[in-house]
Design goal:
The chain is an alpha/beta fold and about 300 residues long. Helix content is about 30%, strand content about 20%. A 6-stranded mixed β-sheet has the order 2-1-3-7-8-9, with helices on both faces. Strands 4-5-6 form a 3-stranded antiparallel β-sheet.
Length: about 300
């Protein structure tokens, strides 16, 4: 008699409190709560039987992040589970492939360089069919880790917004133009001559029922719950970012029994109107959306 396959569950938690000024044109972008976010989400994962990898600040490099994503994609098979969380600054780069309506590519600001949205979605496209992926992004430009920016004035009092100021982003790009232009072109080449970009997935937001070409090429079931809408800011905090704090309160140490859509809705209700978490999906997600979050 055949035995049922044991489900494997892995997670990657990235928290970046400062970035390397050598790459970021002298800017360090200090934040307070990103490492706490990553550690707290890793503890949640362990409590659910998920094996976590944690990358904090100086260890949250492009190489280590991409290696962890590729290792998970290689390991996990149909029915397995992957949780990806990021807390840190969001950024933007000029779009050299002309696939963005706003002529910008969005990024996660890792310690030694930015991870472009095209890169991230290309890595997710490498996960096998039937793998369940939940991604939580506590950064700005995170409604799809995407478009429309900057999200508002950079404040000097109160909670810090988690985005790299536009003028700094422009300097970083000029300083590293050849590097970032090549990354974008390599992503386009790797995806068959067409960028696998998340903005395309806006056609698949919520329950529209429309399937974008990006979604059609995503074999895994991917649900993203993000820190804010694309024209808003995700805010830092004393211990957790505002989004992560609200999500953890909603989860309530496992007392939450709803599905992913309900987790998004209840988390959103805990936050002020200036920060409204977003939800969108890629791939065949109907069954996954109906599941309880973080369940292996």
């Amino acid at each position: 008699m055949a035995t049922a396959k044991k489900v494997q569950a892995l997670s990657l938690h990235i928290g970046v409190n400062v970035v390397n000024p050598a790459h970021y044109s002298g800017w360090e972008g200090p934040l307070t709560a990103c490492e706490f976010d990553a550690q707290d989400m890793a503890e949640l994962a362990k409590g659910q039987g998920i094996k976590p990898t944690v990358l904090l600040t100086k260890n949250a490099t492009r190489a280590k992040t991409l290696a962890a994503l590729r290792s998970a994609a290689k390991t996990l098979k149909k029915g397995d589970y992957f949780l990806l969380t990021f807390s840190g600054h969001g950024g933007q780069l000029p779009d050299v492939d002309n696939e963005e309506a706003d002529e910008r590519d969005e990024t996660w600001c890792l310690y030694d360089g930015q991870l472009i949205d095209d890169e991230l979605y290309l890595e997710l496209a490498g996960f096998a069919a039937g793998v369940r992926v939940l991604m939580l992004s506590d950064s700005c430009h995170s409604g799809t880790i995407a478009k429309n920016g900057p999200p508002g004035p950079f404040t000097t009092s109160g909670p810090a917004p988690r985005w790299m100021p536009f003028t700094i982003g422009e300097r970083v790009y000029r300083q590293n133009k050849a590097f970032y232009d090549k990354l974008q072109r390599d992503c386009t080449k790797a995806s068959g001559g067409r960028s696998l970009d998340p903005d395309e997935a806006l056609a698949n937001v919520g329950v529209s029922g429309r399937v974008s070409s990006t979604a059609a090429r995503m074999k895994a079931s991917v649900v993203l719950i993000s820190g804010c809408q694309d024209n808003q800011s995700s805010y830092d905090g004393a211990h957790n970012g505002a989004f992560t704090e609200a999500l953890l309160a909603t989860w309530d140490q496992g007392k939450f029994k709803g599905n992913h859509s309900q987790l998004h809705k209840k988390t959103r209700a805990r936050l002020p109107d200036r920060q409204s978490p977003n939800l969108f999906t890629l791939g065949p997600v109907k069954a996954f959306l109906a599941e309880r979050p973080f369940v292996v």
